[in-house]
Structure formats: C-alpha cells, structure tokens
C-alpha cells in the first residue's frame, strides 16, 4: 500500500497498486458502516483523533502551530496510555515534556503562536547556554517530544506489513536509532526492558484501534493500518521541519541524560 499526502494538510489519499483502488482518508470517518458491536465503531477512535489533530499542525505556509501541536500531542498521549504497560514509560515521558512546553505557552500564547517564536522567547531571554538547554524548559520539552514521535513513527511503520518484524523487535531497533544515543546508562536499561513487553502485532493493533482482539478481522485491521499510514505520513514532514527549526536556531542539544 502506497500513501500519498494530498496538497491539503487535512486530506490524504492511498493507492492500492494490486487492486487499483484510491482511498481518500478525509472521507473515511463518515463512510465507515455501523457495526452490531460498538467496539468496532472506529469513526471516533483515539487513533482518529490523533490523525485529525496532527494533520493541521503545519499552518501559515510552513509554520508549526504551537497550540495545534500541543493539542495533537495531548490526543496522542491518550492513545499511547491505552497501549498497555509496554508504552507506560513512553507515555510518562511524553506527558512530562508536554507540561514543560505548556507552562510557557499558557503564559504567552500570542507570542508563542509558532514553534519558532516559542523557542525564540527562551533563546532571547538567555535561558539557555547555546545548545545546552535548561531543564525544565519549553525547548527541552519540544526536543524530547520530537525524538519520541520519531521513535514511534518507525515503530508504527513496522506494523503496516504483516510480514514485518515482531513489534517488540521493531521497537527496540527504533529505540536504538532515535532515543538511545541521548539516554544515559539508567534509561538505556529501563526503556528496552519496558519495550520488550510489547505484544504480538495483532494484539498491538487492537490496542491502537481501541477494539478487542477477537474483533480484529481483515477489514478492521485494514482500516487501522490506513490510519497508521496517514499518521506516519503526516509526521514525516512535521518532524523534518521540527528538527530543522532546532538546528537552524542552534538549539539541538545532543547531550545524554
């Protein structure tokens, strides 16, 4: 399945080369048929909320809207909190870093409208020593949220193929790429131990889709995978712009914690 991002930031199209079918995500939620089981009603699932929120984070040309980003991350926090004990540390870390950003944004919502202006408030105040970021601060919170989403993006991508890695192995590989280089000895011990509890693909998909494992048939799985594809397709340009903003402003802190 190939995912193409449409010109609109709120519309996604998917092409199935085997069946020559084009699927429009923007119309998806309103066209899912009712099921006799309320657990199969995916039209208002946590995953849907996350996809919708992140789809409109990049605004005003090529700017990351702070308010929408925080809203999207809050929705995502709810999703991964339902992912079981294996994602508990990931959720706790995301919530902690969100709080660091929200403190500054709530004080100056107009001045911090975009990510770049939020970071400039702290940079111009002399809070940081170059790219040595003060902790707690909005900048350090944004830095770690981005790294966490990069880790999760690779993990979710691995779920799309039924012949891919076990989610546990994919999570550990993604951890080594996106988080381990910045973690000290203690975190490099506890994070992999937590991620090793990630269940088999079908169980993990059912948790992300907010349904019971026995209700995960082929059609339901396909719908969940299309949403995950929409999410990771949205994250790709967002995370690239996010990192570029930090690097351009000289705020990419690479120390271990």
How does this model look, in words?
The protein has 257 residues and is mainly alpha-helical. The protein is 56% helix and 7% strand. A three-stranded antiparallel beta sheet has the order 1-2-3, with helices on one face. A hairpin with a 3-residue loop joins strand 4 and strand 5. Helix 3 packs antiparallel against helix 4 and helix 6 (138-160) runs antiparallel to helix 7 (167-178). It is globular and about 55 Å long.
What are the salient characteristics of this protein?
mainly alpha, three-stranded antiparallel β-sheet
Low-confidence stretches: 1-42
Spatial strand sequence of the major β-sheet: 1-2-3
Indicate the proportion of strand residues: 5-15%
Mean pLDDT: 87
Oligomer: single chain
Number of helices: 10
- The secondary-structure class comes to mainly alpha
Helix content: 55-70%
The radius of gyration is 19 Å
Distance between the termini: 38 Å
In brief:
It contains ten helices and five strands, in the order βββααββαααααααα. The chain is mainly α and 257 residues long. The longest helix has 31 residues, at 218-248.
